[in-house]
Write a structure and sequence with these properties.
The chain is an alpha/beta fold. The chain is built from 6 helices and 11 strands. The protein has a 7-stranded mixed β-sheet with strand order 5-2-1-6-7-11-10, sandwiched between helices. Strands 3-4 form a two-stranded antiparallel sheet. The longest helix has 15 residues, at about 170-185. It is globular. The chain starts with a strand and ends with a helix.
Length: about 190
């Protein structure tokens, strides 16, 4: 049986931040499952940076099925978790089932990859206090309020937690996360 990795997400997640790690981890030989509030077809979005806009723009993205609902996740069956960004973390942080899942990963000191707005979820379970992280730059104050030391960098590694700012940083993010995975949860 292959080593399993969990991706937690929902509607309005950033397409690239779900699909890139999903495909990259499959390519490495991991078994990857996507969990969401319910088992359904998820609708992702594409955030882009366009001249003349003060912030990113949003367009419809890919659709992809969730393999299981948060309530059905057994964190013990997974070696690591990936937390994509987009708008999904804004409402997912209120999901008590997801908070239980994430807390279990942190309690077991399992690898966590988070990107963009994803750290809003780890902040919601109190897991950022005393950590070094990065996130979408507009979240600097949120990260500091959660007790983290914010660093504006492509990828920040703090123990088994690997964070990144947004999809343009994917290569650095996945390179660092795979380094952590290869040492803590190698492909079997």
């Amino acid at each position: 049986m292959a080593t399993r990795i969990l991706i937690v997400t929902g509607d309005a997640a950033e397409s690239l931040e779900v699909m890139y790690p999903y495909q990259r981890l499959l390519e490495e030989g991991y078994e990857v499952h996507i969990a969401a509030p319910s088992r359904k077809k998820l609708r992702f979005v594409v955030h882009d940076f366009e001249e003349g806009f003060d912030t990113y723009t949003e367009k419809p993205g890919y659709s992809w099925p969730a393999d299981l609902a948060f309530a059905d996740v057994d964190p013990g069956a997974y070696a690591a978790v990936v937390i994509p960004g987009g708008r999904a973390p804004e409402y997912l942080r209120n999901d008590p089932e997801l908070r239980k899942v994430l807390k279990a990963f942190f309690d077991a000191d399992k690898p966590v990859a988070q990107i963009c707005h994803g750290p809003l979820l780890t902040a919601a379970v109190g897991a950022l206090s005393g950590r070094r992280v990065t996130a979408y730059p507009a979240l600097e104050m949120d990260m500091e309020t959660a007790g983290a030391s914010f660093q504006d960098s492509e990828a920040v590694v703090d123990g088994v937690v690997v964070s990144s700012r947004a999809w343009p940083d994917h290569p650095a993010w996945m390179r660092e996360f795979l380094t952590v995975l290869r040492s803590t949860a190698p492909v079997t």
